[in-house]
Amino acid sequence: MTVEYTLVRAPHDVEQILALQAENHRDTVDPETAQREGFTSVRHEPSVLHAMNRAYPSAIAVSGDVLAGYCLMMAQQFRHAVPILEPMFSLFDRLEWRGEPLAGNPRWFVMGQVCVARAFRGQGVFDGVYHKLRDAYAPQFDFVLTEISQRNTRSMRAHQRVGFETLHVYRDPAADEMWEVVVWDWR
Ligand SMILES: CC(C)(COP(=O)(O)OP(=O)(O)OC[C@H]1O[C@@H](n2cnc3c(N)ncnc32)[C@H](O)[C@@H]1OP(=O)(O)O)[C@@H](O)C(=O)NCCC(=O)NCCS
After folding, report:
1. What is the CATH number of the domain that holds 11?
2. Mutation test residue for ligand 1: of 154, 156, 177, the one with most atoms within 8 Å of CB
3. CB of residue 115 inside a 6 A radius of ligand 1
C-alpha cells in the first residue's frame, strides 16, 4: 500500500478526518483496544474543522481513496472554537517553554489531534504525517504543542520517538486522569 503525505486539499479530506475521528473516539473504542492502540478525546464540530483547515491545512496520509492518518493544525486563533480544549489553552497561558511565556507568543500552534487508521498502524504513518506538518509549518512557527493522556501509552511512546519533550504534567481531577503537555521544538 503506497501512502502519500500531503496537506488537506479539499472539504472531502475534512469529511474523511471526521469519520476516522469518530471511529477512534474513546466513547466508541472498546477498552482493550483503547489500552493497546489509543483513542481520541476530541470531537470537532464539522464547521469548525473545515474553518481550521481553510486557515491552515492539516497534514494527512492518503492511500488511494483511503485516509490513512492525519494530524491537525490548530492555530491559536481557534482557542475558543473547541470548548473541550479551552482549559488546555488557559493552562498554556500560565506555562513557559525555555524560559519564555507561551502567552503572547504567536510562534507556536497546537497539534489538535493525531490518528492513524487501524490498518496503517505501526508502519511509519505517524512519523510521516508529523514530518509533513513540520515541513509545512516550521518556516512560520518555532514549536508545536499538544497534550496526551498518560493512559494513551502508545501515543506517548510515538510522540517521544518523533521528538516531543514533556513540558508539564497535570491531573484532571474530574476524570482522575494524568495529562502531559508536550512540545516539539523545531529551532
Ligand atoms: C497513537 C497512534 C496515532 C500511533 O500511531 P501508530 O502508527 O500506531 O504508532 P507507531 O506504531 O509508529 O508507534 C507506536 C509506538 O508505541 C509502541 N507501542 C505499541 N503499543 C504500545 C502500547 N500498548 N503501550 C506502549 N507503547 C506501545 C510501539 O512499539 C512504538 O514505539 P517504538 O517506535 O519505540 O517501537 C495510533 O495508534 C492511533 O491512531 N491510535 C488511536 C488514536 C489515538 O490514540 N490518537 C492519539 C491521541 S493523543
Report:
1. 3.40.630.30
2. 154
3. yes
For the chain, the domain total comes to 1
- pLDDT by residue for the chain (187 residues), tens only, comes to 799 999 999 999 999 999 999 999 999 999 999 999 999 989 999 999 999 999 999 999 999 999 999 999 999 999 999 999 999 999 999 999 999 999 999 999 999 999 999 999 999 999 999 999 999 999 999 999 999 999 999 999 999 999 999 999 999 988 899 999 999 999 9
CA of 101 to the centre of ligand 1 (A): 30
Helix (H, G, I), strand (E, B) or coil at 45: coil
Which atom of ligand 1 approaches the CA of 69 most closely?
39
b/e per residue 109-147 (b: at least 16 CB within 10 A):
bbbbbbbbbeebbeeebbebbbbbbbebbeeebbbbbbb
For residue 83, the enclosing domain spans: 4-185
172 CA from centroid of ligand 1 (Å) = 23
